[in-house]
Amino acid sequence: METLAIRIKIGDREYPMRVKAEDEAKIRHAGKLINEKLRKYKSEFGLDDNQDLLAMVAFDCMVESLETNEVNTEDSEHIRASLAQINSLLSNAL
Hints:
- This protein has 94 residues and is of the alpha+beta class.
- It is built from 2 helices and 2 strands, in the order ββαα.
- The chain has helices at residues 24-45, 50-93, and strands spanning 3-10, 13-20.
- Strands 1-2 form a two-stranded antiparallel ribbon.
């Protein structure tokens, strides 16, 4: 497992990290998305305090994560029900 030493800039700070080579693009993309959200909140709300901006981004990301988990749970339940129905049909056919 090869690791790379990279630096990710979030807001006006750089953070050194060691990441797996296969995760580098994903981590850089995550940093880019965070910075885009920081700029969005800064322009929308006129905030200059980085701590407030980062708190808003963290809150927004958590809400998105909860919504995604909720959708995934609903999808999983639907898939389980469909598989159970298919299994029942197959059992009856045999």
